[in-house]
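Note to self: user wants both folds in one dump. Writing first protein now.
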Amino acid sequence: MFSAIAAIVVFAVVQDRLTVAGVGRYVSMSRAAAAGLGPAVTIDAVMKPAVVHAVQQATLWSGLVLATGIGGTLIARRRQGR
């Protein structure tokens, strides 16, 4: 149970932080475009790839936390049975 909750928390935190980083990239790119220092960008052009990346990384890290928790539980059960 703890592993599942930890995996959900890890997913939420990683996805949030990476999505916020995408927002930061969009803001800096649109400011540069407004100042004439770069091409105009749309929010979709920046945020769609950022969200996809955020969800992929969040899934990867939360899966790792869940697998580690389940693996640790199985190892502890085997040792306890001896």
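First done. Writing the second protein, which came from a different request thread.
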Amino acid sequence: MSGTIPAAAKIVWAGEHRFDASAPGSATIRIDASGKTGTSPVTTLLAAIGGCVSVDVVDILAKRKTPVESLEIDLQANRVDGTPKRLASATLNFDIKGVGIERVHAERAIDLAINKYCSVRDSLREDIPVVWTLTLNGERSEPASAKIY
């Protein structure tokens, strides 16, 4: 397809329900459906959402000249009761620290990251709600629903 940016990955079976995933020239991650030697496929998806969103939040706040000193996200997801047990909803609880970061700017960075820039989030079904909270320099906010742009 012309005009598309390619993505590539390779999966190598490592026995039982274990698989090693990598992209050309990158490190390998272990995906393990049993969770013994690596993260499960669903946990890997949650981590991909968190990683994708984190890159954007850090970049947006850095452009405001308020760099992030630390960022952690606790991610939880609910799954449907049926087959396949796809995600039904996700909650991202951000804990960001940084001198000079104003709550309104951190919230806007999170909102933009989740709803506009994160290609992993945008690749999920549109009916999967994403809710997030922000603890900024120790002060927690109420949960916010992701907005559709």
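Dump finished. Worth passing along: The first helix runs from residue 41 to 63.
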